[in-house]
Structures are given as C-alpha cells and as structure tokens.
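fyi for ur records
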Amino acid sequence: MPKLPGISQKDAVRVLSKIGFRLVRESGHVVMSDGHTRLTIPRHNPINPITMGAIAKDAGLGPSEFRDPL
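which gave:
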C-alpha cells in the first residue's frame, strides 16, 4: 500500500466522519466507530504516514479513496 501523507488528527477525524464513522470517545486518542469497526486515531500532528495508512485500511479505504475527501 502506498503511503498516505502525514495529515493532522483533525483532518483524519473529518474524513472518517464523512464516510460514516462517529466519535465515540476523546482522550489521549480519538476513538471512532461505524457500529462494526472501531478505529483509534492518535493525537499527533501530523500522524505518521504509515499509521495513517493502517487506519485507512482498517476503515476499508484505499489510499486514493482516503485522499479524495481531503
């Protein structure tokens, strides 16, 4: 999987919200869920590109599908 760009935590939450994930909890990390899948997003700015790629993969998105809503 090609790397995704390092993006901010706020941008990651915004993109995942657009595809149906909802905020469950905020603390040291942001936890989002769509009812079946739970994603944990670190509060780093920027999020490491490899970590962001793994989060996108867990959400069921490819790199190009994740980049489009950015």
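The helical segments are 9-18, 49-58, 63-67. thats all i got for now
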